[in-house]
Each structure stands twice: as structure tokens, then as C-alpha cells.
């Protein structure tokens, strides 16, 4: 096993735009909004950044290809800038690029920025995307809700879960996230909802109703990273460092081999195990204090609680309904409101999650601040479809060095 | 070894439009339709056309038959989706017929089906004859009320035929009872009384007399008279004029299916074969710019035809459709607002289609000769996590396998011509799976573990370029061809 990234890289500063229907903002404006906060927080100047990574996924809807849009928006001084795209993990991939650059010594200070401008499509929901010339010939015209809804069918079949029990736990997840989002000024959706609203909402893709789906928003988030030594030399104390960064990518097993039953994310299970090992975590249920997961749909969050090895297999419904993941529960999940209330500007989401960890660990999360400062936090992105996806997991925490 | 019809099959789409719905919607304009609002007509699902129906009818006919012996394919229709692309070629690909076969489209007349069958019976080698029809029609038109969509297929060749041809007769005449051109789009027809008197009654009886004379039989020897004609009692009038007993005039399936155009003589022939006893004499006529008359004798081998749905089985595989608007929308008679999601580009790269024809058209997967894992599609590296061997896969056909639903949804967000879009993971127990579209299924019928069979369907329609592409979809098993 490689030694890994643990405690080699510290977060120097972070920023996050207001998420929402930003009708008056281009993607470039959103980048600047997140960046201004991050650079001020870092206490450095733009010319001190050695390299940058841009995460965008549906670039044809806004900035177009390449890393040029980031360099232009921030007037980066002809430094190396790279654009990364890996479905919904694009933001975390940008972070991984910057962190690895610092850890390797290739850069002293690196920038990761994710952005997506989704609200220029003219219709609701995620934009239609190309799937590739050959895939288009055989794949269903599947939507994101239609793909993730299938988890519910397979989960019910595997665990014998009555449909109404599963639907109720899914509804609890959405109600919980709206409670949290209502306390976050940067969230898109800030309204509280109740169980009946979720259960009675129009059906989008059986069994996912409207309130089982996350919002669709514009937004950007940004991280500036460096070594712990440089961070200290710049006057930072109480460092938040990266403990683990893992990525697992489907290789066709789930899509083509009958060893996968459709009720869980094979990638998440693998990435989580590797991340815990990298971070030195033996019992995640006891050691992780806060999680932000990829709640594109309520059912995704539910099965992810098991795939992260926090809820035992088949027990997520009970943990959810017991309030284990509520803001005042044992391990709050989506204490910032999650994708549910922030929406999912693809490239920004992963960095937005890390931003919440960064705030909570420093006691800067305002109304939604956990009483006891979390020490170990996990973020999770799941991009693609349950049967073929990329899963990124990052673990951040207080510096032990 | 004798020459004749070796096997037969049919396909009638599952949806049956209630004629009452047509009449109720249109009788404000044409009051005469009120009295015609009885029974039902077969109606293609949005993803069906003559090509897909031909494939299903052929699969039905080929149950228990070796496909590698087929040396020719004749596809008859007046409603081919492609004007310049061999429609029979698509059918041959979907059936995984050998590349060495000859294949032809037979078109442009309502007797294209019988002419194709005659051509096959005159030839050598095993020939698959398939006829399919799906006619466009204007709202409130006679064709809309009388036509049905459907297909039939017959395998002709050496072996133990279920029926042999005793004699045939053909007459050609440029009698234009109706026509259809690119400009007209739909049928333009002349007065029915003239069609009856100057057309059918003048052209058909001499051909029947001729075929009986050639066979050395009397009209009273005929035990099944298949005479497609939508005009009420016309078949009986022809029988009377030629001495054929009225009791052997076969039902033209108007009440349950409608008239399937160029396919209808063969649909009626298949229906007759399903009922026939050894020694029966079946007379089938195809009328259109003349007439084909074919007289068959049924053999004892007919009793051994099992495992197919045929006309009867497909008529029983039925779902009533009372929504006339849906029929109009499926057939582009009305322009429905499909929403912005329907605007997604559906360009097919023809080069990629050709390169992937095995996987896409033939639903061919792979079988790893090292570990035995079946997989779809065939790929260079085995998908088995414990194998991963390179270049070890041989082609493995999946089209006739039955799979089971592993996961599913009914999606109301994505664009579908018939929402919700049902799709999910289909798992084949012996190995292999694919996330695929479902068809001919109701939302309430979806459940994990449900057996599903594969059907060849229109994947989507590229309205920008007038192209349609085909792929396989999963439909509830039971009532199936080959599965």
C-alpha cells in the first residue's frame, strides 16, 4: 500500500459562491466570487499561486473546453492550469490535482476551483448530455433520476424492505437536508419541508418524487492548498490537512457482470476502504465526525451510508429514521444542506463539501455550527450512474503533525 | 425431400386501437364513421415499424429452424421505412442470417406479399419470405378505420413441408383502386363500388378458375379461402362467383386486427395453416394491380408446428388502446409539443453503426473461451474480474435469450415518445447483462426478477435527418417468439 497523502497538504484558504439560480452571473463571475473569498482567506496574492486546476463537467453549456476560462477569469499569470472532468467528481478531481501537485513538490501553492453554470438550458433538471457515439446506439435515454431510482428497486428486492419504509426513510433524508439548508445563507433552497410534502410530491422516476431529487443550480467553490510548513510560515495555526483522497472508477463489472446486484455502489465501498486506510481510520462509525455525501437523490444518500461502512448493510433505513445522520445526530450528514439544498453545479459540488468541513472544523459555520468542533470529516462524490460511475472520497481533519 | 412451406409465423403489435375511439373523435366531421366504430385495429407501438414487425414475424417462423440454411430473404411491403437502403438487409442483420444470402425488397403493390411468396416457391434453396405493413393514414380516412399493422413470415424450401404449392395463377392489370406517392403521403382511393365491380369481380375470378384448373381441382375442394378484401361481403361474393363454398371463406380479421396491406394475404394464410388439417386445400389471393392466386395442400407435418405464437398467439397478446390522440401522435398525424429535451441530437454515425452492427443490430455478445463468461457486448478484454483474458471471446447471440429485471424505473423526466420511459438492468442468468430500454410493458408490471425477452425495435428517430436507428429492447416474456 502506498504511503498516501495524509497530512502532507494543508488547506490555506477556501471560498464558495452563493449557490442558486444566478441569472445575472456568468460562470466566470461565479469563479471570481468564490476565488475572492478564498484568496482573502489564504492571505496571499494571485502571483503566489504556482499551478491551478479547474473542474467543470458540462462545459458545453457555459465556458467551453480547456483551462483557459479559469486563467482568463482570475488573470492567472501564465501558470500551468489544467481542466479536469470526471462526472460529478470533477470538483474533487480538481482538488486532487492541486493537492498532489503540492505533495509532489512541483508546486508550493496550488489552486483548485470548480464551477458550473447549469441554468442556461431553458428547462428544469440537469442538462441533456451526449453519451458518446457508440453508447447512444444502445443505452436507454436515461436521466439521472431514472438511473438512480433503480437503486431503490434493487435495494428493496435484496433486503426485503417494504416500499413504504424505504420511501419514508428517503423522505426523512430530504426533510433533514432542508432543515439544514434553511440555516445556510449560501444554500439555494432555504425552505423547510415536511414528510408529507415529500411523500405527496409529483413522481419523477419511480420511486423518486420531486423532493427526492436535488436542486439544479449555478455555483462555484475554490480551495488553495500548500504544505503545512508553508501554511505555518504564512501565519496559519490550527491547520486543516488532507488525510485521504481516493478515487474508484467502474471497469464495466457492474454494467456487464452478474456479480453486482444493483443495490449499492461498488466503487464507493472500495474507495471508502482505501480512504480509511490512507487516513488511518479503523472504525469509521466511531471516528468520523461529519460527512458530506453525494445526495443527488435521497436514495443515493441512503445506500451511501452503508457503502461508507458507517451503517451496517441493510440498516441504513433504521439509522436514518433514528436521526443518526441529523444535524444533532451522531454523524451529521449534509449539515450544510447538501446537494439537496445547494443544487448540483457539477464541478463545484466536491469543493463545496470540503468548504463546509473547513468551516465546521474552524467553528466558522454560523447558525449550523456543530457544538463540538468536528475533527475528522469525509466528503463523497458519485459521478455517472449506479451501474457505471466514478466515486471520489476525501477525508480532511485537524493537522496531527 | 419435397419443396414447399417449411414453417410459418406472424406478428401483430400488442396495441389494439378501439375503432370506437376513432369514430367518436371524427364523426362530427364524417357521420358515416359512427357505424364503423366497432372492433379494434392493430396499432404499432411508437417504436415499431414494418422492419421491426418483419423481424418478429421471421423469428416466430424460424422457431426450431436452422438459420444458417437460409439462402435468400424476400421482404414485401408498401411502407418500407427506407426508400434507398435495403430494408431486408436490416431484417437479415437482426436475424443474424448469413452474409451469403441474397436479399430483396418487394414493393409497390398490395400483392407484394403473395408475389414474394410465389417468387420463393419458384426458386431453389431455403427462402425466408416476410411481409409487413404499417400504413400512414389521414385522420377520419377509410384506411385509418380499416387498416391494421402486422406481419407474416414463411420459410420456403426443401424438407418436410407443412404445405406444398399445387398451382398458382397471376394476372397483371394497371387497375388503380388507390395509389400512394411521396407527394400524396397517404392513400388516395376511388369509389368502392367501381373497385368491387370493375376490379375484384372482374380480375380475381378468372385467376381462381385458372389455378383450380391447373391443379385439377374443383372449387368445392377448397377448404380455406383467404381473400383479403375490406369491402364487406366481397370475399363471399367472389366465392359465390367462382363456386367456392361460402363456409370456407376465412375471416378477414377485420374485427380483431384490421387489414395489414401487403402482408394480409400471408397473415390470412398463416391463420389458415394454424387451423388446417392434413389434406386441406388453402386458396390464397393477393389483389393489387392484378392478382396472385396460390393453391396449397396441407401435409401431416403441419401438426408438428409448435412453439410459435403465430396469428392466434399474437392476437391474444393484446392491450386495448382507447386513446386515439396517442395513435395520432405516434404516427405524426398531430404535432405534439415534445419539449426541449426532445431536441437532443440523435445523429447516428453510420461508420460506427457499421462497425458495431454485431452488437447493435444482431445483439451479439461474447463468450470468453478461457473462463466461459458470457458478456455483452463482445470486447477485447474479458469482463470477469477473475479473468481479464485478452482476445479470447467468440460471438454469443443474446437475441433469443430470456433475461430478468435486475433493477428498473419508469422515468418521467427524460424524453420518450410514450412516457414514462421504462428501462433497467436486464440480467441473463447464464451470463451477461445490459442497461436497456423496456417496451410493451406497463409501469405496474415492473418488478425485480420479472422474465423479459428481447425484441427488435426502433431505438430513436432522428427527425432532423429523417433517420431511425434500431436496437433491442426488453419486453415481458411469455407469448414469445423463440423465448
UniProtKB/TrEMBL annotation, chain A:
Span of domain Thiolase C-terminal: 264-393
Matches recorded under Gene3D superfamilies: 3.40.47.10
GO MF term list: acetyl-CoA C-acyltransferase activity
InterPro entries documented for this protein: Thiolase (IPR002155), Thiolase-like (IPR016039), Thiolase_C_2 (IPR055140), Thiolase_N (IPR020616)
Pfam families in the cross-refs: Thiolase_C_1, Thiolase_N
Segments crossing the lipid bilayer: none
Coiled coil: none
Residue intervals of the Thiolase N-terminal domain: 20-227
The protein, known as: Acetyl-CoA acetyltransferase
From TrEMBL, chain B:
Claim: Acyltransferase is one of the keywords in the record: yes
Keyword Acyltransferase: yes
Domain ChsH2 C-terminal OB-fold: 400-457
Gene3D superfamilies: 3.40.47.10
CDD domains in the cross-refs: init_cond_enzymes (cd00827)
Beta-ketoacyl-[acyl-carrier-protein] synthase III C-terminal domain: residues covered: 212-291
GO biological process: secondary metabolite biosynthetic process
UniProt xrefs under InterPro entries: ACP_syn_III_C, ChsH2_C, NA-bd_OB-fold, Thiolase-like
Entry keyword set: Acyltransferase, Transferase
Pfam families listed in its UniProt record: ACP_syn_III_C, OB_ChsH2_C
GO MF annotations in UniProt: acyltransferase activity
UniProt protein name: 3-hydroxy-3-methylglutaryl CoA synthase
Native source species: Chelatococcus reniformis
Amino acid at each position: 500500500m502506498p504511503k498516501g497523502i495524509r497530512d502532507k497538504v494543508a488547506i490555506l484558504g477556501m471560498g464558495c459562491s452563493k449557490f442558486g439560480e444566478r441569472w445575472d452571473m456568468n460562470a466566470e463571475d461565479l469563479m471570481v466570487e468564490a476565488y475572492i473569498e478564498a484568496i482573502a482567506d489564504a492571505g496571499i496574492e494571485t502571483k503566489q499561486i504556482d499551478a491551478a486546476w479547474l473542474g467543470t463537467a458540462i462545459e458545453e453549456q457555459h465556458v467551453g473546453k480547456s483551462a483557459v476560462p479559469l486563467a482568463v477569469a482570475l488573470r492567472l499569470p501564465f501558470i500551468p492550469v489544467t481542466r479536469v472532468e470526471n462526472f460529478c467528481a470533477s470538483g474533487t478531481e480538481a482538488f486532487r490535482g492541486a493537492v498532489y501537485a503540492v505533495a509532489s513538490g512541483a508546486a508550493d501553492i496550488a489552486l483548485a476551483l470548480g464551477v458550473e453554470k447549469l441554468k442556461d438550458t431553458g428547462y428544469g433538471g440537469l442538462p441533456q448530455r451526449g453519451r458518446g457515439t457508440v453508447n447512444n446506439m444502445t443505452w436507454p435515454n436515461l436521466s439521472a433520476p431514472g438511473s438512480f431510482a433503480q437503486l431503490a428497486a434493487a435495494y428493496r428486492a435484496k433486503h426485503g424492505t417494504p416500499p413504504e419504509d424505504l420511501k419514508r426513510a428517503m423522505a426523512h433524508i430530504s426533510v433533514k437536508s432542508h432543515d439544514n439548508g434553511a440555516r445556510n445563507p449560501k444554500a439555494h433552497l432555504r425552505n423547510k419541508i415536511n414528510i408529507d410534502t415529500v411523500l405527496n410530491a409529483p413522481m419523477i422516476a419511480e420511486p423518486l418524487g420531486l423532493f427526492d431529487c436535488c436542486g439544479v443550480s449555478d455555483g462555484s467553490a475554490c480551495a488553495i492548498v500548500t504544505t503545512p510548513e508553508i501554511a505555518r510560515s504564512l501565519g496559519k495555526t490550527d491547520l486543516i490537512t488532507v488525510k485521504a483522497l481516493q478515487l474508484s472508477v467502474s471497469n464495466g463489472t457492474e454494467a456487464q457482470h452478474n456479480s453486482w446486484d444493483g443495490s449499492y455502489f461498488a466503487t464507493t465501498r472500495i474507495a471508502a476502504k482505501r480512504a480509511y486506510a490512507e487516513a488511518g481510520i479503523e472504525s469509521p462509525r466511531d471516528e468520523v465526525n461529519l460527512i458530506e455525501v453525494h445526495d443527488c437523490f435521497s436514495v443515493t444518500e441512503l445506500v451511501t451510508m452503508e457503502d461508507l461502512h458507517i451503517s451496517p448493510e441493510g440498516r441504513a433505513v433504521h439509522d436514518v429514521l433514528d436521526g443518526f445522520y441529523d444535524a444533532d445526530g451522531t454523524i451529521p450528514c449534509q449539515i450544510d444542506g447538501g446537494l439537496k439544498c445547494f443544487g448540483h453545479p457539477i464541478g463545484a459540488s466536491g469543493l463545496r463539501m470540503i468548504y463546509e468541513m473547513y468551516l465546521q472544523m474552524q467553528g466558522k459555520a454560523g447558525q449550523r455550527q456543530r457544538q463540538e468542533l468536528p475533527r475528522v470529516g469525509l466528503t463523497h462524490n458519485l459521478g455517472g450512474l449506479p451501474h457505471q460511475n466514478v466515486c471520489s472520497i476525501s477525508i480532511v481533519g485537524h493537522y496531527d503533525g | 425431400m419435397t419443396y414447399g412451406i417449411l414453417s410459418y409465423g406472424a406478428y401483430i403489435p400488442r396495441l389494439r386501437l378501439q375503432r370506437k375511439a376513432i369514430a367518436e373523435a371524427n364523426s362530427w366531421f364524417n357521420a358515416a364513421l359512427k357505424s364503423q366504430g366497432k372492433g379494434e385495429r392493430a396499432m404499432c407501438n411508437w417504436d415499431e415499424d414494418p422492419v421491426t414487425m418483419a423481424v418478429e414475424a421471421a423469428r416466430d417462423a424460424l422457431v426450431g429452424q436452422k438459420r444458417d440454411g437460409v439462402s435468400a430473404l424476400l421482404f414485401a411491403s408498401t411502407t418500407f421505412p427506407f426508400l434507398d437502403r435495403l430494408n431486408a438487409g436490416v431484417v437479415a442483420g437482426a436475424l443474424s442470417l448469413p452474409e451469403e444470402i441474397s436479399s430483396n425488397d418487394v414493393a409497390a403493390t398490395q400483392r407484394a406479399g403473395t408475389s414474394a411468396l410465389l417468387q420463393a416457391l419458384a426458386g431453389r434453396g431455403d427462402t425466408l419470405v416476410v411481409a409487413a405493413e404499417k400504413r400512414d393514414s389521414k385522420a377520419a380516412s377509410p384506411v385509418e378505420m380499416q387498416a391494421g399493422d402486422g406481419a407474416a413470415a414463411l420459410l420456403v424450401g426443401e424438407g418436410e413441408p407443412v404445405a406444398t404449392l399445387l398451382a398458382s395463377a397471376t394476372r397483371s392489370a394497371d387497375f388503380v383502386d388507390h395509389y400512394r406517392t411521396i407527394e400524396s403521403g397517404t392513400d388516395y382511393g376511388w369509389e368502392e363500388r367501381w373497385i368491387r365491380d370493375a376490379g375484384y369481380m372482374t380480375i380475381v375470378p378468372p385467376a381462381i378458375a385458372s389455378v383450380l384448373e391447373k391443379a385439377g381441382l374443383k372449387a368445392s375442394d377448397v377448404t380455406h379461402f383467404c381473400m383479403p378484401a375490406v369491402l364487406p361481403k366481397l370475399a363471399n361474393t367472389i366465392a359465390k362467383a367462382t363456386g367456392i363454398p361460402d363456409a370456407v371463406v376465412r375471416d378477414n380479421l377485420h374485427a380483431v386486427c384490421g387489414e395489414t396491406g401487403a402482408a394480409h394475404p400471408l397473415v390470412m394464410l398463416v391463420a389458415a395453416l394454424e387451423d388446417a388439417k392434413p389434406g386441406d386445400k388453402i386458396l390464397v389471393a393477393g389483389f393489387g394491380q392484378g392478382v396472385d392466386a396460390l393453391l396449397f395442400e396441407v401435409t401431416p407435418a403441419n401438426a408438428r408446428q409448435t412453439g410459435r405464437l403465430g396469428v392466434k398467439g399474437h392476437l391474444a397478446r393484446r392491450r386495448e388502446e382507447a386513446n386515439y390522440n396517442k395513435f395520432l401522435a405516434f404516427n405524426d398525424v398531430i404535432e405534439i409539443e415534445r419539449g426541449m429535451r426532445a431536441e437532443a441530437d440523435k445523429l447516428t454515425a453510420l461508420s460506427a453503426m457499421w462497425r458495431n452492427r454485431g452488437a447493435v443490430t444482431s445483439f451479439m455478445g461474447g463468450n470468453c473461451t478461457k473462463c466461459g463468461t458470457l458478456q455483452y457486448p463482445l470486447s477485447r478484454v474479458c469482463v470477469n474480474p477473475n479473468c481479464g483474458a485478452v482476445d479470447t471471446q467468440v460471438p454469443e447471440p443474446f437475441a433469443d435469450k430470456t433475461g430478468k429485471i435486475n433493477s428498473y424505473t419508469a422515468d418521467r423526466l427524460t424524453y420518450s415518445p410514450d412516457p414514462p420511459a421504462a428501462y433497467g438492468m436486464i440480467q441473463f442468468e447464464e451470463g451477461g447483462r445490459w442497461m436497456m430500454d423496456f417496451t410493451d410493458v406497463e409501469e405496474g408490471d415492473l418488478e425485480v426478477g420479472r422474465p423479459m425477452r428481447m425484441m427488435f425495435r426502433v431505438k430513436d428517430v432522428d427527425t432532423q435527418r429523417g433517420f431511425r436507428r434500431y436496437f433491442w429492447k426488453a419486453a415481458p416474456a411469455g407469448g414469445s417468439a423463440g423465448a
